[in-house]
Write a structure and sequence with these properties.
By secondary structure, this protein is of the alpha/beta class. The protein has four domains: about 5-195, UDP-N-acetylmuramoyl-L-alanine:D-glutamate ligase (3-Layer(aba) Sandwich), CATH 3.40.1190.20; about 205-240, no CATH class; about 245-340, no CATH class; about 355-545, P-loop containing nucleotide triphosphate hydrolases (Rossmann fold), CATH 3.40.50.300. The protein is built from 19 helices and 20 strands. A nine-stranded mixed sheet has the order 3-2-1-4-5-6-7-8-9. The radius of gyration is 35 Å and the shape is flat. The model has no long low-confidence stretch (mean pLDDT about 85).
Length: about 550
């Protein structure tokens, strides 16, 4: 395993308590190969600073080039940089080398409140270094400068951290000393807040010899499991509440408030909600049906899913609620299908005309499989029923879906309607047009290609042919659903590789005609497709037979 490398860019501390010396020790103790670029030499110890000798911009540049051109650092930490010129050199070199994982400690204000940087240097740091930083680690006074707000309590720390992180698109570790709290630090990263308690808080909150329940989000650090700033509760206090199994629910929050409320906060909200609503829960399933399937009551299920009395009760509660959910889905399916089949609003294709028969009897290049014949019959039944067809044709690559689509489009044109095939890419649309145009034009049926990248003149001519009905077959990309595309009498839409289109896109194409029949093709149904089938929006046809001599598809 390659050893991690890190570069510290900061001033020195000859006594070893701060600056690059402290950084190098910390990196080494954590198993990281440490490197440094010195911004200034200092003569100092624990009692104070006696002298400073700042690096020149050119010499700092030479240091940075020497490091990056030899041992590229996995992370860069920037400490005190006092002058605008040095800040500009650092920013320029980090951008030049594409530095990653940049941590900026904006050393602007001392604990005493004394300014450590000139105003112009502060402005340069904000403008040049913060936009390329991954993590910023200000103290309270520095966070006030970066956020432009006063920080007097922990709520202000939260607001300031969010403001800095959102403004500069980086994570923020706000160090909490400076009389705000007992040096509890706040991390704001990826929209989430995490508090890290200082030793004084732990000393005040934890009693030696007492038992605590510890809970939080587990993670691994250097191969060991840890809980970063977990919540703690005395065991006797936890079990003094209403009788519970000891299990406690986890309630994810899209509002990123979990760190503010905490697990106990969510528990109290749920408990209060239950006390208000428990007497108003009414049973939705007859007792005989519940007894038949061994289901607990709805009231008992809701209680045990939030406050499980045992692992067995929790499982029973989940089973009951899942049963309700699936029952609701099935009832919805039946209701939607019933509604769909009571509306006779589809185009009628009453005849099998000359185009279809001639192609089938004289031009068909090979005999149709039994599966293809079955699917064509299903499509034929849909188009004479008076109902709008909305059918998914699923089959492996090479199973003959395109041939079924071709014959369906001939059927539509035989009955005086236009047909349209929509493909997800221009390449695929052109491939379809090249294959289909000679067949249809041999019968005197004009075929037009419509894509977004066509020359303006060709596009105008294609749109005109679609609008006046002279184009019997339209092959295209998303351009066919644009506002400029108006069909004279669209009767059938074939949507190839349906998983590449959204539901709204297919609906938009169907709306180009009045209750236009829809046939969608796919070799790879996706969960959304399966849900559409479940909800009765699509009927399903499957080509489960390969043409003679066709080899299996290997994936």
């Amino acid at each position: 395993m390659k050893k991690k490398t890190a570069l510290t860019i900061a001033g020195s501390d000859c006594s070893g308590g701060a600056g690059i010396q402290a950084d190098l020790k910390t990196m080494t103790m954590n198993g990281v190969y440490a490197m440094s670029a010195i911004t200034a030499l200092t003569a100092q110890n624990t009692t104070g600073v006696r002298g400073i000798q700042e690096s020149t911009p050119d010499f700092l540049k030479q240091q940075l080039d020497a490091v990056f051109e030899d041992i590229y650092p996995d992370a860069v930490k920037i400490g005190m940089v006092a002058s605008t010129e040095l800040i500009c050199v650092i920013a320029d070199r980090l951008r030049h080398y594409g530095a990653k994982n940049v941590v900026v400690d904006p050393v602007m204000v001392a604990t005493s409140g004394a300014a450590l940087m000139k105003t112009d240097a502060v402005e340069t740091l904000i403008a040049e270094l913060l936009p390329i930083s991954t993590l910023v680690t200000p103290n309270i006074p520095e966070a006030e400068v970066l956020s432009g707000m006063k920080i007097e309590r922990e709520e202000d720390m939260v607001a300031a951290a969010k403001k800095i992180g959102d403004n500069f698109h980086c994570a923020v570790l706000l160090k909490g000393g400076h009389s705000i709290n007992d040096a509890n630090d706040l991390l704001y990263a990826d929209g989430e807040l995490t508090w890290f308690a200082g030793i004084k808080w732990i000393e005040k909150s934890v009693e030696v010899g007492r038992e605590y329940l510890i809970f939080g989000r587990p993670s691994f650090y250097r191969g060991e499991l840890q809980l970063a700033h977990p919540e703690m509760e005395l065991v006797e206090k936890a079990f003094s509440r209403k009788a519970h199994s000891g299990m406690q629910g986890i309630y994810p929050s899209t509002e990123k408030i979990g760190s503010t409320l905490g697990t106990k906060g969510f528990f109290n909200i749920i408990a209060n909600a239950w006390s208000v609503t428990e007497k108003h829960i009414t049973e939705s399933i007859p007792d005989s049906l519940r007894a038949h399937y061994g289901l607990m009551s709805l009231r008992e299920a809701i209680f045990n899913v939030h406050f499980p009395q045992s692992a067995e009760k929790l499982q029973q509660a989940q089973q009951r609620l899942k049963f309700d959910e699936f029952l609701g889905v099935q009832l919805s399916i039946q209701a939607q299908r019933t509604d769909r089949l009571t509306r006779r609003n589809g185009f009628l294709f009453p005849k099998v005309g000359d185009l279809f028969n001639t192609f089938f009897n004289e031009r068909l290049p090979f005999a149709l499989t039994g599966a293809q014949k079955r699917v064509i019959k299903e499509i034929r039944q849909d188009t004479v029923s008076g109902y709008q067809m909305n059918r998914l044709l699923q089959g492996d690559v090479g199973s003959g879906k395109t041939m079924v689509a071709l014959m369906s489009m001939l059927l539509a044109i035989d009955n005086g309607f236009q047909a349209c095939m929509m493909a997800p890419t221009e390449i695929l649309a052109r491939q379809h047009a090249v294959k289909l145009a000679p067949i249809f034009e041999s019968y005197g049926i004009k075929t037009v290609l419509l894509t977004g990248k066509m020359p303006a003149r060709a596009k105008r001519e294609a749109l005109a042919a679609v609008a006046d009905g002279s184009a019997g077959l339209v092959v295209g990309t998303h351009a066919v659903i644009s506002n400029s595309a108006e069909f004279a009498s669209l009767g059938l839409v074939v949507c190839d590789e349906q998983h590449r289109f959204g539901v709204r896109q297919r609906a938009a194409l169907s709306a180009k005609g009045r209750d236009t029949h829809m046939l969608v093709l796919s070799a790879t149904p996706i969960p959304r497709t399966l849900s559409l089938i479940m909800f009765g929006d699509l009927d399903l046809s499957v080509i489960d037979e390969r043409p003679p001599g066709r080899k299996p598809i290997k994936t």
